[in-house]
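Chapter summary example.
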Amino acid sequence: MHLNHRHLHTAETYILLRGRIRVLFFNDSCELIASELLNPLDGKFGVDIPVGQWHTLEVLESGTVIFEVKDGPYMPISPEDMMTLDSDVK
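The structure predicted for these 90 residues follows.
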């Protein structure tokens, strides 16, 4: 199960420090529209997520560490900005 979410007030950036992750992007109908595999062995260390973009991430390697950056102050995610995907996304 994935907790898909969006941030309506800020963009978000993930910078991979160690390990591997896959960042998944969805449309408003919960359909997968893109994914980015971050893996330092491939030279892919970061991804920018625009304001309002539905997304989630999968940790693919034990010991993975990311640095997450958002514009502006912390704002909790409201329930309308979360959606649960019941099936595994490939």
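To summarize the output: The mean pLDDT is 91.
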